[in-house]
Amino acid sequence: MSQSRHLDAAPVARTATAQVHEAIKQRILDGSYRPHDYIRETSVARELEVSRTPVREALRELVSEGWLEAIPHHGARVVAWTEKDAREVFELRLVLEPMAVRLASERLDRARLDHLEALAERMEALTERVEVDPGVRNEIAFLNHEFHRELVLASDNQRLFTMLDMVVRTSVIRRNFNTYDHGALQRSMHHHREILQAIEARSPAWAESVMRAHLLSARDLHQSLAEPERASGEAPPG
Question: Which residues pair with 70 in a beta bridge?
Fold first, then answer.
């Protein structure tokens, strides 16, 4: 009986850890936790109304995945991105994400395409509000991540998805949306629309080309914003 109870408890513990893991990750992505912020077990356990055990396990996982870093005698803190990190992310995305979109254009079903179009439409609407309500940038960033994630999932290549998920989920693009002016946001939204047009036309080469242009545009914008900060001795936005 004791063994049965132990086995039954395992999925429950795993679910609690997964929920804490997702909650902390989302707080990092939406900016609630900033680079170099320490994540305290007791505070998270109290806020999420769980014991410290799943929090501890979630923190260990987030450290192993690169979201957090373990600081001896202090705990876990949010990793700060460097220009080298940003360069490596773009290098990987420029190879893998156009490939994923090319595959998606051959395999994506109507339901997922409708979902992507709804995401694109929502981002476009928010972009038109950004100058009067800067707070919508966080929602745009969240939707942008979902848009790219859905495209990669549509490739129906689990290994490719796993590789890209490791890269895109902590991408500087999500953390630096506050640096996009209105014109840059509109260009990004236009790329999203053209990618969907290419997919609907069942044109893998077109879809792949637009995704590459989309990422190159984001990389160049990031570099142009980082250069003045390097020249002034300030750290780039993380």
Answer: 76
